[in-house]
Amino acid sequence: MVRTELREHVFKLLFQIEFYQPEEMAEHPGLYFESLEQASEQDQAYIRTKYEKILPHVPGIDALINEKSTDWKTKRMNKVDLAILRLAVYEMKWDEDIPTGVAINEAVELAKRFSGGESPAFVNGVLGRLAAGADGPKQEA
Prior knowledge:
Layout: H1 3-16, H2 22-25, H3 28-34, H4 41-54, H5 58-68, H6 79-93, H7 100-114, H8 119-132
């Protein structure tokens, strides 16, 4: 799989955390992979690793999103947009392999594909404000 496809699967796993208790989520990647016949073991490892790296950062990511979102806070936000933003913010702040511009562009594309009409502009706006306020190199994961 190409990285765009891998990112989409990470997004789909992140989307699920809004609907289940944390203790229930441990088995979800395995169940998700059962439906991914085209995913190699390497692809599954990438998806699982990235997903597991993002989870402990979710409270901090949400704080950053709330700081940069002018009208919508994470509690009221469309859950698809929230999952997209969480993934992109992680990539912007902690993933050394993903340039900030790529993280933003990929997030906007996910919003076009999976969310509502105004979502791409909303996602772009929040991430643009975050990128404009970035201080130096990415943080340690």
